[in-house]
Amino acid sequence: MELKFSKVERKGPVTIVTLSRPEVYNALHTDAHFELQKVFDDFSADAEQWVAIVTGAGDKAFCAGNDLKWQAAGGKRGWDKGGFAGLTARFDCDKPVIAAVNGVAMGGGFEIALACDLIIASENATFALPEPRVGLAALAGGLHRLPRQIGLKRAMGMILTARHVSAKEGFELGFVNEVVPQGEALSGALRWADMITKNSPMSIRASKQAIQKGLGVSLEQAIEEQREYPAVKAMVASQDYIEGPKAFSEKRPPKWVGK
Fold first, then answer.
1. Which of 2, 66, 165, 183 has the smallest C-beta neighbourhood within 10 Å, fewest atoms?
2. Which Pfam families match (predicted)?
3. Considering 131, 178, 228, 250, which one is annotated as catalytic?
4. What are the strands of the beta sheet with 126-128, ordered from one edge?
5. 4 exposed, middle or buried (CB, 10 Å; 0-12, 13-18, 19+)?
6. Helix (H/G/I), strand (E/B), else coil: 153
7. pLDDT digits (tens, 9 = 90+) for 156-187
8. Out of 2, 111, 178, 184, which one is annotated catalytic?
């Protein structure tokens, strides 16, 4: 598929997805959503790709959210089953996804970042759910993910005022994992991805899936059921499950195969 609104680069087991509509601060419209759905479908299905990084073209914006000018001009709004950018409703991907936020992350752009497992933000990054200022609401997951990630009162403080939050405050609130100098969001995300890929991808997928499924039930139920989760069962049946202890006993680095 020819990519018109995004770019994809692979560095070993890491897929880098760049939202590429810099003329509108990487805001997204319907065609971009459907393109990104296919991009993340391909990433999810590729056994050789273990971690994804999402970033924005240029140094001003990660993603300004929904392309309001395109919508106001009569453009039809909509996306595929994966949600905004093919990510916000993608609940079946057990591979880690990192947001490298290199500028404004507004509305849907912030919702993309919140849907990722980690957020690495440059010092010039700005976050907000400003939908109420234009008569809308953050219905691509922001209204539900933000309270779960930083607590109800803090989330209400951001959502009801629609205020902008800096990278530093985002770190203090707890939704940003690391703040890096301007221009280094992607390199920071690659550093985190490198740390992740030193671990067994089977273990990483099992861990992510167990966390996601466990958060939806009681602690007791999560512990009782975790060994029946598909990614956990796949880990236990994998070559990596044998290789890890063997490498440890032989005092050598493990050779992960991801199966």
1. 2
2. ECH_1
3. 131
4. 61-63, 104-106, 126-128, 165-166
5. exposed
6. helix
7. 999 999 999 999 999 999 999 999 999 999 99
8. 111
Name the strand (E) or helix (H) holding 165: strand 165-166
Q: Residues near 247 by Cβ (< 8 Å), separated by ≥ 6?
A: 253, 254, 255
| Overall residue count recorded for the chain in this entry | 259
Structure tokens at 230: 């598909």
Tell me if residue 228 is catalytic: no
**Percentage of the residues of the chain whose pLDDT score is greater than 90:** 92
Using the 8-state DSSP alphabet, how is residue 66 labeled?
Answer: B
Q: How far apart are CA 76 and CA 240, in angstroms?
A: 46
Residue 224 annotated in active site: no
Structure tokens at 258: 């991801």
Q: For the segment 95-134, what is each residue's pLDDT rounded down to a tens digit? A: 999 999 999 999 999 999 999 999 999 999 999 999 999 8
DSSP 184-202: -HHHHHHHHHHHHHTS-HH
Other C-beta atoms within 10 Å of 62: how many?
A: 32
Following DSSP, what letter does each residue of 218-235 receive, concatenated? -HHHHHHHGGGSHHHHHH
Q: Which two tokens stand for residue 72?
A: 């106001």
